[in-house]
């Protein structure tokens, strides 16, 4: 039976497809091309410079610092944001009075802009801000903790902000998955005398294992892509001596202005892509192995 | 035997204690920011014994934000970008998602594969060459240039595809028998059945456009064209160290999105249950 004319699907698909080609497919190819040039933000003469950008990148101390920061970022975010949101999802899964309110409230940090929450946390973590004042009031500390001026504490503060902002997002991902865990397994385990902790480990966790791997991939890639948190907490300066920068901050730095260098920024983008592929491949392999 | 569905009183109490603890952590900082934004210049906000309730609440800080930066213009700019993004995604993702899910045509698998393939590419990787494209189109330092690349997100096409695909085949067959054309089938039969996913696409597109920072920061150079997020960073970096003012600015950016989300959260969570987020 003829359901439509031959060109109808194309009329419907072509607008979206055009956007995809112009703003995703072509830019991916062009990133690679630009990374071998000395393109400037304002246009003008562009020359091919071979692998110069890449050799420069390998000798750039800032790049190595950014990679170290990313590794630390990922190492801390990965376990925290894979496990805490699952516990949170289990907490809000049970239908209790006001539970819809709590679910919505826990999602609020997700919908707020990273700029908003970044400025909020800048104030909370200020030398004279709420957290330092509360800690002094409780006599936990004598002087203020330099959350925003110490090279390592800035990184830890940004990581905490990322974890805090991500909790609700991954909670929702888990909540959708928890709906598919078989209720009868829970009941059977309960009849066998398994307590809540045991049921969580033997029924819930195996039931959402696939989702845990998905979340782990999303979290690691997000950790490597971090920009706004570090940018806002350091007022765009990248912390003391510019040591608290991520790869994306470096890309942004070279994207504009008088000293901008789109060729170098593109080489950094290619590096970013390579780096984000690593956790995807590793986690996909781990997932396959635990399947068999 | 006790049924598993009914928690004991002790368990209920423990659950609520935990829920309130998480509530304090997630929402507390927003309330503190709101409180700071309402404190007058005469009130010491740096006091060692923090007080949550402003002594003499005032909206003065909000009007001062409007004096420091053209905040209404920034709201308008952000709104324009957000509306274009939502409109583009709703329209184009629906059309493409429907065609790929419900119409058979040659090249369908390739088109689907293309949309899937771009998902693994983090947006930041292509941001530089995207800027080059926008610049070459003559759209650098314009709001259209900010909105354009986000007007069709591959993820939204796939979400709509997924929603349309899960509808039973029979509803189309019946409509075809009745002589319904493709536009009629899309608008009258299929679209009403995927409203939940459409709401998720709309809400997420709006939030994403309204909250975005890196892309407008790269595209825009003239202060009068800034979106609200870039303007906020500009406010805190250039004009003031007064935390009351910055707090008022962040609330101006946050409150519209909070109101929008709480008004639509019912559709959002319903859409999530329909499998909207799982993809």
UniProtKB/TrEMBL annotation, chain A:
Membrane-topology annotation of the record: Multi-pass membrane protein
SUPFAM superfamilies documented for this protein: MalF N-terminal region-like, MetI-like
GO process terms (BP): transmembrane transport
Stretches that traverse the bilayer: 7-26, 71-92, 104-124, 152-177, 208-227, 264-286
Domain ABC transmembrane type-1: 67-283
Compartment list: Cell membrane
Membrane found in the keyword field: yes
Domain of life: Bacteria
Entry keywords, A to Z: Cell membrane, Membrane, Sugar transport, Transmembrane, Transmembrane helix, Transport
Pfam hit, one: BPD_transp_1
CC terms in the record's Gene Ontology section: plasma membrane
PROSITE patterns in the cross-refs: ABC_TM1
Assigned protein family: Belongs to the binding-protein-dependent transport system permease family.
PANTHER family xref list: ABC TRANSPORTER PERMEASE PROTEIN, LACTOSE TRANSPORT SYSTEM PERMEASE PROTEIN LACF
Protein name: Multiple sugar transport system permease protein
The organism of origin for this protein: Paractinoplanes atraurantiacus
TrEMBL record, chain B:
Subcellular location: Cell membrane
InterPro entries tied to this protein: MetI-like, MetI-like_sf
Topology in membrane: Multi-pass membrane protein
Assigned keywords, A-Z: Cell membrane, Membrane, Sugar transport, Transmembrane, Transmembrane helix, Transport
Statement: the UniProt record of this protein carries the keyword Cell membrane: yes
Keyword check for Methyltransferase: no
Matches recorded under CDD domains: TM_PBP2 (cd06261)
Residue ranges of the TM segments: 12-32, 79-98, 110-131, 143-164, 185-207, 245-264
GO cellular component, one term: plasma membrane
Domain ABC transmembrane type-1: 75-264
One example of a Gene Ontology biological process annotation: transmembrane transport
Family from the record: Belongs to the binding-protein-dependent transport system permease family.
Protein name: Multiple sugar transport system permease protein
Taxonomic lineage: Bacteria, Bacillati, Actinomycetota, Actinomycetes, Micromonosporales
